[in-house]
Amino acid sequence: MKEKDNRSKQLAYLLRHDLEAYRVGKIDDSGWRNTIELQEDCGYTQDELQEIVDTDTKGRYELSEDKLHIRALQGHSIPVEVDNIVESIPPEILYHGTPESNLESIQEKGLLKGSRLYVHLSADYDTALKVGKRKKGPTIVLKIKTAEMSKAGIKFWKSKNGVWLCEYVDPKYIEL
After folding, report:
1. Which domains are seen in the chain, by residue range?
2. Where on the phi/psi map is residue 110: left (φ > 0), alpha (ψ -120 to 50), or beta?
3. Among 162, 157, 164, 159, which Cα is nearest to 73's?
4. pTM higher than 0.85
5. Which residues of the chain have pLDDT under 50?
6. Cα separation of 55 and 146, whole Å?
7. Residue 50 and residue 44: Cα distance in Å, rounded?
8. Tens of pLDDT along 122-132?
């Protein structure tokens, strides 16, 4: 199980953050990467890639119909055009899980996308808590007043796997 988790995490890096692969054209502008290249250069098998896509509890990955390409649905730090998201009106509240140690900065600066293309928000408290727990230390879950943000003209997108995305969350829209 641990080996499978490590391979999935490695794949997440290879599809979302591998800037060198993007620079040399191994990742196209829509985030697709050739599965044969991943097999030859990184030691994945086609069955392993399929299993990661099928069993990923967050639904982070997508295989092309012909199985020759794979991509992550969101979470990129490389400048790809994420074309699998749909601009959407969010529910009244969304959530963001984060280490408690980030709270002071968030209260001052808001939620920043950092090196990623978007800020990620969860539709429910439990999912946000799981996301926040991936980092070390105590976790907090923030309530984001997304209906107010939307009324103020801030755009939201929803990924195929239910992750909500926006470019920034001002501190005035954040509750503990």
Report:
1. 2-72 (1.10.10.970), 85-175 (3.20.170.30)
2. left
3. 159
4. no
5. none
6. 30
7. 10
8. 999 999 999 99
